[in-house]
Every structure is written in C-alpha cells, then in structure tokens.
Amino acid sequence: MNSLLVSRRVIFTIAITSFSIYLVFILNPEGALRILINLLTFAGIYGLSAIGLNVHFGWTGLLNFGHASFMGMGAYVTLLLMPHAAGREGEVTTSGLPIIIAVFFGIAAAALFGLLLGLPAIRLRGDYLAIVTIAAAEIFRLLVRDLESITGGVYGIISYTENLQKFRPEFINSLSLNYEFAPSQAWVGIIAWVSIILTLFLLKRLNSSPWGRALRAVREDEDAVRAMGKNAVWLKLQSFMLGAGIAGLSGVLLAFNYGSLETTVFVPLLTFYVWAIMILGGVGSLTGPIYGSIIFWVIISETDRLAYIFFENANGQQLAGFRFLLVGLLIMLLMIFRPSGLLGKKEELLLDVK
Amino acid sequence: MLDQLGNGLLLGIIISVASVALSLLYGVTRIVNFAHGEIIALGAIATLFLSSPIDYRVLFLDKFSPLGLDFFLSCILAVIICGLFGGLLELILFRPLRKGNVGNIAVLVVTIGLSIFIRHLYLLFATGKVQNFPLELQRRQTYLFFDMTPRNLKVLIIGILVMILIGLLLTYTKLGKAMRAVRDSEELSSVSGINSDNIILITWISSSMLAGLAGVFQATINDVRWNMGFLILLLIFAGTVLGGIGTSFGAMVGGLIIGILVQVSVGLPFMEGHTEAKNAVALGIMIVILLFRPQGIFGQKERIS
Question: Which GO terms describe its cellular component (chain B) (predicted)?
C-alpha cells in the first residue's frame, strides 16, 4: 500500500514536471528550445545545489542558511586557480591548473569551509545554526568583495570560460546552428546534468550504507546514536562537508554559466532560491530536487508575463522584484500547506527544534 | 577611533531597540522572526509616505500622493501602523500556525518566505530609489566628546527613554509579568488564568511597534531604502545573540555593543581601506561569542543546548 502511494506521487511529480516543460513550448511559439536550454541549465545547477542542501537539512536536519557561501567558495577557488582575468585593471593570469584539478580543489575548499563553519555551528540548536550560517555566508561575501587584490572585488573575474569551452564537443556546435541556441550554455547544462546523475549515484550508495543510516539516526535521535557508540558530532560534520562540496561544484557551474563572476551572485537570496527548490521537490528525497528545480525555473522564467499583467511597461527592476515576490510566496505557502513538497516523506521531516 | 563613537552610539541605539523587539517576540513565542527587518522598513516607508509634501511624486509609482502630515505626527502614526501590521500577522498567519502545531523550524522558514515577499512588495511599490525624509540638513555639533547633529541627539535620547520605559513595563506591570510568565511556560501560565493568546497578540503588536520605531530612527539618521530592514537584520541578530536571546536587558546591551563595535572597527589599523567589511567584524564577534558562550552574556543556560 505504502509503496503504491509513493509510486503514485512519483508519477504525479513526473507528470507535473513534463507539463511545465510542455508549457514552455506553448507559451513561447518561437525560440522555445533556446529558452528551454537556458532554463534547464539553471535548473541543473540549482538542482545540484539543492541536492547538497538536502544532505544538510533532509538527511541530517541541519538548518543551513549559508549555502550561497559554499557555492561561492567552490567557484572562487576554482576560477582563481585557472587562467583568468580579475580586478579593476582586468589583470590577466595566463598560467594555472588544468580545469579538472582546479575543480577538485574548489570542491575540497568548499568542503573544508563546511568543516570550518560546522565546527562551531554544529553544537548549536537549530534556530541558532540558521543565524550563524547566514551570518558566516555574509562574512564570506563581504571579505571576497573587500579583498580586491586576490578576488577582483566588486570588479569580479572574467575570461575564464575558455578553460571549459575548449573541451566542448563538435556536435553541440552543429546542433546549435540548426536550432539556434547558445552552444556554450548547452555544454555547461550537459555537464550540470551529468554531475547530478553522478552525485545521485554516489548519494544513493551512501544513503543505504551504514554511514547513511547512522546519519538519519542522528536526525531522529542524537542521544541514541551516541549510546550506540557513534560519534554524532563527527557524523554531522561529515554531512556538512559532503553537502558543502556538492554546493561547491554547483557554484563552479554557475560561474561558467554566467561567464563572469561577481560577488553579488552569492547574496542570501541565492540560498533562499535553493531552499525553495529543495522544499518544492521534497525534503529528504533524493530525486526530488531535480523535479523541484525544473518546475521552479519554469515558474521563474514565465513569471515575466504575469508581471506585465500587473505592471504595464514593467522595467527590469520590477520584473526581478516580481520574481522574488513569487519565490517568497512559494516558500511560505509550501511550508504552511505542504512542507514535504512533491516527493518528501512527512515522517522524515525535522520541523521542531531539538 | 573616538570620532566614530557618536555614529556608534546612534547605530547602537537603533540595533538595541530592534533587538529588544526581536528578543521579546522570541522569548514569548519562540519564533525567530526573519521578517523583523521588513517591519523596520515599514516604519520608515510609512513615515515617508505620511510626511512627504503632497506634490512630491517620486515614490509610489506616481499613483498615490503622499499625505504631507507633520513629521512628528507621521512618526507616531507609522509606529502605530507597524503595531497593527504585527497584530494582523499574528491573527491571520502565526496564530493559525500555532494552533495547527506547526514546528518551530517550519515557522522560521515561513518567516523567511514572508520576509522575501514583503521586501519585494516594497521594491515594487516604493521603487528601488534611496529616499530621504523631508527634513532640513543640520550641522554636526560637539556634545561632550562625540559629534552629532541636534536631531540625531534627540533620536538618541528618545531611544534611551524608550528602553528605560520598556524595562520598567516588563519588570513592574501586570502585563510585563504575564509576558514573562508565558515566556517561561505557556501551559503553566494558562493554568494561572493568563490568556496566552492575548499576551502573544500584545507581544506581536509591541514588538512590531518597537521595530517600526527602530525603522523611523534608522531612516532619520540615514535614509529610506526598500531593503533597509534586511541590511540591518543580521546586526540585530548579532545584538540579540550577544546579549542572550530571549532576555530583554541583554538585547539592549548587546545591540548597543554591536552598534558601537561596527562603527568603531572602521578606525582599527587593519581595517584601513576596508570600511565595507565593518559588518563582518560584528558578525564574526557574534560567531565567536556563540562558540564560547552560546547563551550570550546575560542568557541562562537552559535556553539553549
């Protein structure tokens, strides 16, 4: 009976996801493919980030509101290790590590940052953890903006996309000629979705391993885990590092998708976007963030039409404002009426302070 | 370093008032209210709308004209509007959530959604422009050993008076005692004949009025922005946590310390040319405090763990 219910929810979720993709084709008779590829690339990157957040909140019950800083750490470390140009003068650095190694260091740096932040934060109760993580993310952002000599400060980092785009397969270029989409973005999108699949395989293995079971036990009853002789704090820290590392990879992909990196990308609103996706997809669900992310980005990319109904001649600021307004409303309504999202399990949801 | 002390005191009193409000609400309802900043901004935006000259048409999409009321009256009305708004939030949103036994974490996430929602309503209707209250410019004067304008000195004095008043109300009136009783145990206080729903409603209203007042202060000293509440929210958290969350006296002192630290840290030797990072100093101190004394300076140990 229970498995029947679960499979029905999966079918419903897949149906609603397919419908939202269909909606993109209906609403955009021209250039639908270009819009869809843009949307799916963002969905892949944010979905990956939401999978990382789900390891924190869904698996371990850690209230992390500093996710943007993990993404930022991954992105900055990776880009600064590769050939790039940074700062006001656009100082060019031609030497650097190959991309695979740079990305490896980026992920490691994000995971280490997770450990660094987790060490003091992990001993705190849920709501304190929320405050500390969001504060730490702001410290990270302010420091990155301020250390202009290293990070390029407000002027950001440019000229790094070639590190990835030189490996772009030829078939994307030829397809892009026929169907009119941006080949560089499609390449980032493909990598994002491949990363999602690999990450999900890894997490699925971990989830059913003794380690994964111990982690979920920490969420349910920390004292019991301690009584069984497991180190609950170290388990939480490992979870923090794993989720942060996944977020770091998604941050790297986000940087490649934008083409230039600025500190304004990693504001707290980025974290809240990822939270909205995770809740929509289902807290604690492995595949939930994928569907949540696609539906979320279809909503985001089609809200402009809605905004034009309320504001004639809406300007860019109003369009952005309207999007965020909807994100806020979505988070609120989901949390009130359906906190388990599309695929989450209600009994696995940690919603009370322990 | 000392020339920043005046600015520090002013920022401190803003954060202090707002921290007391946040701490009061947390103490009674256990809600970490991320939408607190938006009520602060409401105080400022409402004052701007009430007090700007009638022919002033930059704000509000050209559709509504400001009311052009007396400035002091506008401030009082704005604070009352904030109180009503807070009461409304409790009645239509948070009371049903409480009755439905929605967990603390879920309510925290709801306040985050609410904060994003309201903030962008301001962006849509009050535009992204930086506005100022219709007040004439004043020259700074030296009082004792710090410089500030006569108007800002008034803000400081009013702020201190309000704090003393709140302290007295909480300690000596029946209402204050009831609030503290509900904070310690909702069940026990209802057994003693306290209507906890009413107390929570009154807490929401008074907390929002204090937040609105902080917004009026902030906008008088600096300016009105759609995201002004969110910009200062983390400093308010820092002040609240530093003093010990849930303790009003602690929040007052904690807020004051954070405000002074933020402004004075501009004068530190290693901060030269890095003034933008001044908030990072305060947030860093908050994290360190939580590391060694999670209950804050004045908090009691059983409130955390």
Answer: plasma membrane
